[in-house]
Amino acid sequence: MINIVINDVIGQAAFKGWDEAHPLRKELTWLTDVVRYDNAKEQRNQILEQPVRRWYPNWELLDKAGRDVLIALFQRARGRYETFYYQDREDYACALTECIVTAAGGETTTQLVKRYLIGLSEYWEEDKKNIVPSGTFAPVVKIDGSTKTEGTHFTLNDATGIINWTAGTSANGALTTGQVVTAQYEFYYLVRFDSDIHADISPYPDLWQAQEVQLLEVSE
Which of 38, 122, 161, 171 has its CA 20 to 30 A from that of 135? Predict the structure, then answer.
């Protein structure tokens, strides 16, 4: 994995005047394996119960320096080989009402989650990893509405999104049955390029336009 956030690379001086522009196309994909038989019947095998994401960033004109930085990133990633971070400008944070975990009792850890489509019958919940470090955005963590302090009541593993409760939380650092953990935090998506090919065009002298850059959500 390359420990960079592609949004930060885009913000470099080489990309002055070049950023994501509307429309930004994003796909949600539910994976189903479909086997069709000669009699027209089919067998459907569900692979994922919740979607994976694919982004098509609409990156506008690049000067030569910007183009070179993007090609260098493809080289560093070896095309589709390496992963890196991406922060979706529409889906980068979780509110207290979206991260709700009820304790079974006795556990000393809690996985951060985010609920999507709250209020609808078909909402789903995702474990969240790759949390933005507290030095950039300090998470707010509560138990039954009472705010807990990082370092005193808990520690947070940014890579896994797992809260580890300490003895400051209770007598033994364990949650009791029915306690409700809520959290507010920001996160990155782990992604890779979905092509080994970098393509661009030069619509004007000394200006370049990236073609069909795709970022695919992955899990490692």
Answer: 171
Which is it for strands 93-94 and 140-143: parallel, antiparallel or unpaired?
unpaired
The count of domains in the chain is 2
Q: pTM for the whole thing?
A: 0.88
- The fraction of the chain above a pLDDT of 90, given in percent, is 68
The C-alpha atoms of residue 64 and residue 201 are separated, in whole angstroms, by 12
Cis before 205 (ω within 30): no
Q: Which residues contact 150 (CB under 8 A, 6 or more apart)?
A: 134, 138, 139, 141, 156
H or E, element range at 52: strand 52-56
* Cα 63 from Cα 24, distance rounded (Å): 21
Residues 57 and 117 in one domain: no
How far lies 3's CA from each of 23, 85, 89, 166, 203, in Å?
A: 27, 7, 19, 29, 33
CA-closest candidate to residue 219, choices 76, 75, 71, 47: 47
